Amino acid sequence: MTDDRTPAAAAPGTLTGSVALVTGAVGALGAAICRDLARAGADIVVHHLDQREQALALCGELEDLGVRTVEVSADVTDWDAVAAALEDAQERLGPIDILVNNAGWMESRRLVDTDLAQWRRTMSVDLDGVFIVTRLVVPGMLERGEGRIVNLSSQLAYKGATDFVAYCTAKAGLLGFTRALAREVGPTVRVNAIAPGPIDTPMVTPHATPEWVHTRTRDSVIGRLGLPEEIGPAVTFLVGPGAPLFHGQTLHLNGGGVLG
Ligand SMILES: NC(=O)c1ccc[n+]([C@@H]2O[C@H](COP(=O)([O-])OP(=O)(O)OC[C@H]3O[C@@H](n4cnc5c(N)ncnc54)[C@H](O)[C@@H]3O)[C@@H](O)[C@H]2O)c1
Protein backbone atom coordinates (compact mmCIF):
# COMPACT_ATOMS: atom_id res chain seq x y z
CA MET A 1 0.00 0.00 0.00
CA THR A 2 1.33 3.45 -0.87
CA ASP A 3 1.80 6.14 1.77
CA ASP A 4 -0.90 8.72 1.04
CA ARG A 5 1.30 11.41 2.62
CA THR A 6 4.16 11.13 0.11
CA PRO A 7 3.32 13.18 -2.99
CA ALA A 8 5.16 12.39 -6.19
CA ALA A 9 8.28 14.49 -6.78
CA ALA A 10 8.10 17.08 -9.57
CA ALA A 11 9.51 15.88 -12.89
CA PRO A 12 13.08 17.21 -12.95
CA GLY A 13 13.76 19.71 -15.70
CA THR A 14 10.11 20.52 -16.43
CA LEU A 15 10.63 24.15 -15.42
CA THR A 16 14.31 24.56 -16.26
CA GLY A 17 14.98 28.02 -17.66
CA SER A 18 12.00 29.59 -15.86
CA VAL A 19 12.20 32.13 -13.04
CA ALA A 20 9.56 31.78 -10.33
CA LEU A 21 8.69 34.42 -7.74
CA VAL A 22 7.09 33.01 -4.60
CA THR A 23 5.78 35.66 -2.21
CA GLY A 24 5.97 34.93 1.50
CA ALA A 25 8.44 32.23 0.51
CA VAL A 26 9.87 31.54 3.96
CA GLY A 27 6.42 30.69 5.34
CA ALA A 28 5.51 27.04 5.69
CA LEU A 29 3.65 26.64 2.39
CA GLY A 30 5.88 29.13 0.57
CA ALA A 31 9.02 27.15 1.36
CA ALA A 32 7.36 23.87 0.36
CA ILE A 33 6.23 25.42 -2.93
CA CYS A 34 9.75 26.77 -3.57
CA ARG A 35 11.26 23.33 -2.98
CA ASP A 36 8.91 21.69 -5.44
CA LEU A 37 9.38 24.35 -8.13
CA ALA A 38 13.15 24.09 -7.68
CA ARG A 39 13.02 20.30 -8.00
CA ALA A 40 11.34 20.90 -11.36
CA GLY A 41 14.26 23.16 -12.30
CA ALA A 42 12.88 26.70 -11.80
CA ASP A 43 15.19 29.43 -10.53
CA ILE A 44 13.54 31.01 -7.51
CA VAL A 45 13.01 34.55 -6.23
CA VAL A 46 12.58 34.01 -2.50
CA HIS A 47 10.42 36.92 -1.38
CA HIS A 48 10.05 37.60 2.34
CA LEU A 49 9.13 40.27 4.87
CA ASP A 50 12.31 41.19 6.78
CA GLN A 51 13.20 37.49 7.30
CA ARG A 52 16.62 37.60 5.60
CA GLU A 53 18.27 34.91 7.70
CA GLN A 54 15.52 32.38 6.95
CA ALA A 55 15.46 33.47 3.31
CA LEU A 56 19.20 32.90 2.91
CA ALA A 57 18.89 29.47 4.51
CA LEU A 58 16.09 28.58 2.09
CA CYS A 59 18.13 29.92 -0.86
CA GLY A 60 21.03 27.67 0.18
CA GLU A 61 18.74 24.67 0.33
CA LEU A 62 17.28 25.45 -3.13
CA GLU A 63 20.71 26.04 -4.66
CA ASP A 64 21.70 22.58 -3.44
CA LEU A 65 18.98 21.35 -5.82
CA GLY A 66 20.92 22.97 -8.66
CA VAL A 67 18.92 26.16 -9.30
CA ARG A 68 19.75 29.84 -8.97
CA THR A 69 18.07 31.98 -6.31
CA VAL A 70 17.84 35.53 -5.03
CA GLU A 71 16.12 36.79 -1.91
CA VAL A 72 14.22 40.08 -1.73
CA SER A 73 12.30 41.69 1.08
CA ALA A 74 9.18 43.84 0.63
CA ASP A 75 5.86 44.41 2.29
CA VAL A 76 3.40 43.28 -0.38
CA THR A 77 1.05 46.12 0.57
CA ASP A 78 3.68 48.73 -0.34
CA TRP A 79 3.72 49.40 -4.11
CA ASP A 80 7.12 51.15 -4.14
CA ALA A 81 8.80 48.49 -2.01
CA VAL A 82 7.45 45.70 -4.23
CA ALA A 83 8.50 47.58 -7.40
CA ALA A 84 12.05 48.02 -6.06
CA ALA A 85 12.28 44.37 -4.98
CA LEU A 86 11.08 43.17 -8.38
CA GLU A 87 13.57 45.36 -10.21
CA ASP A 88 16.39 44.04 -8.03
CA ALA A 89 15.31 40.40 -8.44
CA GLN A 90 14.87 40.61 -12.22
CA GLU A 91 18.19 42.37 -12.70
CA ARG A 92 19.93 39.53 -10.88
CA LEU A 93 17.92 36.50 -12.04
CA GLY A 94 16.04 37.52 -15.19
CA PRO A 95 12.38 38.17 -16.01
CA ILE A 96 9.74 36.49 -13.90
CA ASP A 97 7.91 33.72 -15.75
CA ILE A 98 5.98 32.27 -12.80
CA LEU A 99 4.30 34.14 -9.96
CA VAL A 100 2.95 32.38 -6.89
CA ASN A 101 0.92 34.79 -4.75
CA ASN A 102 1.41 32.93 -1.49
CA ALA A 103 1.95 35.69 1.12
CA GLY A 104 -1.12 35.91 3.29
CA TRP A 105 -2.55 37.06 6.57
CA MET A 106 -5.14 35.32 8.72
CA GLU A 107 -6.52 36.40 12.04
CA SER A 108 -9.32 34.96 14.08
CA ARG A 109 -12.02 37.46 15.06
CA ARG A 110 -15.80 37.52 15.06
CA LEU A 111 -17.50 40.18 12.97
CA VAL A 112 -18.79 41.97 16.08
CA ASP A 113 -15.24 42.17 17.48
CA THR A 114 -13.64 43.38 14.24
CA ASP A 115 -12.85 47.06 13.82
CA LEU A 116 -12.16 48.73 10.51
CA ALA A 117 -8.36 48.67 10.92
CA GLN A 118 -8.41 44.91 11.58
CA TRP A 119 -10.71 44.32 8.60
CA ARG A 120 -8.44 46.39 6.38
CA ARG A 121 -5.27 44.60 7.54
CA THR A 122 -6.59 41.31 6.17
CA MET A 123 -7.85 42.90 2.95
CA SER A 124 -4.59 44.77 2.46
CA VAL A 125 -2.35 41.69 2.62
CA ASP A 126 -4.68 39.12 1.08
CA LEU A 127 -6.13 41.31 -1.70
CA ASP A 128 -4.16 44.56 -2.12
CA GLY A 129 -0.90 42.61 -1.82
CA VAL A 130 -1.91 40.19 -4.56
CA PHE A 131 -3.10 43.07 -6.74
CA ILE A 132 0.15 45.02 -6.31
CA VAL A 133 2.53 42.13 -7.01
CA THR A 134 0.45 40.86 -9.93
CA ARG A 135 -0.03 44.35 -11.36
CA LEU A 136 3.74 44.86 -11.38
CA VAL A 137 4.63 41.42 -12.80
CA VAL A 138 1.95 40.93 -15.49
CA PRO A 139 3.09 43.63 -17.97
CA GLY A 140 6.46 41.86 -18.39
CA MET A 141 4.72 38.52 -18.92
CA LEU A 142 2.45 40.01 -21.59
CA GLU A 143 5.39 41.70 -23.28
CA ARG A 144 7.35 38.44 -23.42
CA GLY A 145 4.24 36.51 -24.51
CA GLU A 146 4.13 34.00 -21.64
CA GLY A 147 3.48 33.75 -17.93
CA ARG A 148 1.86 31.64 -15.27
CA ILE A 149 0.26 32.73 -11.99
CA VAL A 150 -1.08 30.73 -9.06
CA ASN A 151 -3.00 32.45 -6.26
CA LEU A 152 -3.32 30.94 -2.79
CA SER A 153 -6.98 31.03 -1.84
CA SER A 154 -8.45 28.75 0.81
CA GLN A 155 -11.09 26.11 1.35
CA LEU A 156 -12.62 28.65 3.74
CA ALA A 157 -13.60 30.78 0.73
CA TYR A 158 -16.14 28.02 0.04
CA LYS A 159 -16.99 26.75 3.51
CA GLY A 160 -16.91 29.93 5.55
CA ALA A 161 -15.77 29.71 9.16
CA THR A 162 -16.93 31.20 12.43
CA ASP A 163 -14.38 33.80 13.60
CA PHE A 164 -12.76 34.23 10.18
CA VAL A 165 -15.15 36.51 8.32
CA ALA A 166 -12.44 38.86 7.01
CA TYR A 167 -10.16 36.02 5.88
CA CYS A 168 -13.02 34.11 4.20
CA THR A 169 -14.09 37.30 2.41
CA ALA A 170 -10.59 38.06 1.16
CA LYS A 171 -9.91 34.51 -0.02
CA ALA A 172 -13.28 34.42 -1.85
CA GLY A 173 -12.40 37.77 -3.45
CA LEU A 174 -9.15 36.25 -4.65
CA LEU A 175 -11.13 33.68 -6.64
CA GLY A 176 -12.96 36.49 -8.45
CA PHE A 177 -9.60 38.13 -9.14
CA THR A 178 -8.27 34.82 -10.51
CA ARG A 179 -11.22 34.28 -12.84
CA ALA A 180 -11.35 37.85 -14.12
CA LEU A 181 -7.61 38.02 -14.71
CA ALA A 182 -7.60 34.62 -16.44
CA ARG A 183 -10.05 35.99 -19.00
CA GLU A 184 -8.19 39.29 -19.32
CA VAL A 185 -4.62 38.06 -19.79
CA GLY A 186 -5.14 34.48 -20.97
CA PRO A 187 -4.19 32.47 -22.84
CA THR A 188 -0.85 34.34 -22.86
CA VAL A 189 -0.74 34.30 -19.07
CA ARG A 190 -2.26 31.26 -17.39
CA VAL A 191 -3.91 32.31 -14.12
CA ASN A 192 -5.23 29.76 -11.62
CA ALA A 193 -5.76 29.32 -7.89
CA ILE A 194 -5.48 26.63 -5.29
CA ALA A 195 -7.76 26.41 -2.27
CA PRO A 196 -6.07 24.33 0.43
CA GLY A 197 -7.92 22.92 3.39
CA PRO A 198 -6.27 23.24 6.82
CA ILE A 199 -2.56 22.49 6.54
CA ASP A 200 -0.30 21.79 9.48
CA THR A 201 1.55 25.11 9.47
CA PRO A 202 2.23 27.94 11.96
CA MET A 203 -0.69 29.89 10.42
CA VAL A 204 -2.98 27.19 11.73
CA THR A 205 -1.08 26.07 14.85
CA PRO A 206 -2.30 28.89 17.15
CA HIS A 207 -5.87 27.68 16.58
CA ALA A 208 -5.09 23.97 16.50
CA THR A 209 -6.55 22.66 19.73
CA PRO A 210 -7.70 19.03 19.36
CA GLU A 211 -11.30 20.31 19.16
CA TRP A 212 -10.37 22.82 16.43
CA VAL A 213 -8.61 20.15 14.39
CA HIS A 214 -11.53 17.76 14.88
CA THR A 215 -14.06 20.40 13.76
CA ARG A 216 -12.00 21.34 10.72
CA THR A 217 -11.23 17.80 9.55
CA ARG A 218 -14.21 15.65 10.63
CA ASP A 219 -16.13 16.18 7.40
CA SER A 220 -13.11 15.66 5.15
CA VAL A 221 -12.31 12.37 3.47
CA ILE A 222 -8.79 12.11 4.88
CA GLY A 223 -9.78 13.20 8.42
CA ARG A 224 -6.46 14.92 9.13
CA LEU A 225 -4.65 18.19 8.48
CA GLY A 226 -2.79 18.42 5.19
CA LEU A 227 1.00 18.74 5.10
CA PRO A 228 2.94 21.58 3.47
CA GLU A 229 4.71 19.18 1.12
CA GLU A 230 1.31 18.11 -0.23
CA ILE A 231 0.75 21.60 -1.70
CA GLY A 232 3.83 22.17 -3.89
CA PRO A 233 3.11 19.46 -6.48
CA ALA A 234 -0.25 21.04 -7.39
CA VAL A 235 1.35 24.45 -7.88
CA THR A 236 4.13 22.92 -9.98
CA PHE A 237 1.52 21.12 -12.08
CA LEU A 238 -0.51 24.30 -12.68
CA VAL A 239 2.54 26.27 -13.86
CA GLY A 240 4.00 23.38 -15.83
CA PRO A 241 3.53 22.05 -19.37
CA GLY A 242 0.84 19.58 -18.29
CA ALA A 243 -1.85 22.17 -17.57
CA PRO A 244 -2.48 24.09 -20.83
CA LEU A 245 -6.27 23.84 -20.41
CA PHE A 246 -6.27 25.28 -16.89
CA HIS A 247 -7.34 28.94 -16.97
CA GLY A 248 -9.16 30.64 -14.07
CA GLN A 249 -9.56 27.30 -12.28
CA THR A 250 -9.22 26.41 -8.63
CA LEU A 251 -7.69 23.16 -7.43
CA HIS A 252 -9.21 22.04 -4.13
CA LEU A 253 -6.35 20.65 -2.06
CA ASN A 254 -8.44 19.80 0.95
CA GLY A 255 -8.44 16.03 1.40
CA GLY A 256 -12.11 15.98 0.52
CA GLY A 257 -13.26 18.78 2.83
CA VAL A 258 -15.11 20.53 0.00
CA LEU A 259 -16.08 18.28 -2.87
CA GLY A 260 -16.45 19.77 -6.32
N1 LIG B 1 -1.93 26.97 6.42
C1 LIG B 1 -3.13 26.70 5.96
O1 LIG B 1 -3.86 25.85 6.50
C2 LIG B 1 -3.68 27.41 4.74
C3 LIG B 1 -4.87 26.95 4.18
C4 LIG B 1 -5.37 27.61 3.06
C5 LIG B 1 -4.69 28.66 2.51
N2 LIG B 1 -3.54 29.09 3.08
C6 LIG B 1 -2.86 30.22 2.45
O2 LIG B 1 -1.56 29.82 2.07
C7 LIG B 1 -0.66 30.91 2.14
C8 LIG B 1 0.55 30.55 3.00
O3 LIG B 1 0.11 30.18 4.29
P1 LIG B 1 1.07 29.55 5.42
O4 LIG B 1 0.26 28.60 6.18
O5 LIG B 1 2.35 29.10 4.81
O6 LIG B 1 1.27 30.82 6.34
P2 LIG B 1 2.60 31.48 6.92
O7 LIG B 1 2.12 32.46 7.95
O8 LIG B 1 3.60 30.44 7.31
O9 LIG B 1 3.15 32.26 5.66
C9 LIG B 1 2.60 33.48 5.22
C10 LIG B 1 3.75 34.30 4.70
O10 LIG B 1 3.22 35.55 4.24
C11 LIG B 1 4.14 36.55 4.63
N3 LIG B 1 3.46 37.84 4.75
C12 LIG B 1 2.43 38.16 5.58
N4 LIG B 1 2.13 39.47 5.44
C13 LIG B 1 2.99 39.97 4.52
C14 LIG B 1 3.19 41.26 3.96
N5 LIG B 1 2.44 42.31 4.32
N6 LIG B 1 4.17 41.42 3.04
C15 LIG B 1 4.94 40.37 2.67
N7 LIG B 1 4.80 39.13 3.16
C16 LIG B 1 3.84 38.93 4.08
C17 LIG B 1 4.67 36.11 5.98
O11 LIG B 1 5.92 36.72 6.24
C18 LIG B 1 4.79 34.61 5.79
O12 LIG B 1 6.06 34.25 5.32
C19 LIG B 1 -1.48 32.08 2.70
O13 LIG B 1 -1.93 32.90 1.64
C20 LIG B 1 -2.64 31.39 3.38
O14 LIG B 1 -3.76 32.23 3.48
C21 LIG B 1 -2.99 28.48 4.18
TrEMBL record:
It holds the Pfam family adh_short_C2. SMART domains: PKS_KR. It comes from the Bacteria. CDD domains: SDR_c. Residues 18-202 form the Ketoreductase domain. Belongs to the short-chain dehydrogenases/reductases (SDR) family. This is SDR family oxidoreductase.
